[in-house]
Design brief:
- This protein has 66 residues and is mainly alpha-helical.
- It is 71% helix and 9% strand.
- It has helices at residues 14-36, 42-65, and strands at 5-7, 10-12.
- It has a two-stranded antiparallel ribbon.
Amino acid sequence: MAAMIHSKYGYEPPEWVLADARLDKWCKNRKRRAKQHGAFSLDKNKEMQHEQIGNSSAKTQFNRQT
């Protein structure tokens, strides 16, 4: 049996430690790239939704008055 290595996920064989490191690096890079392209900018999306909701409610109020 291979020597077990203590990683942040517990004791694992060396192959699993390398695989975990690659996956962690891949996830971190994916999140960084998505952040650069605005995939996680929720504030930006909320502002656009509020503008759309505000415009549509103003239109319905105008239609009700006429």
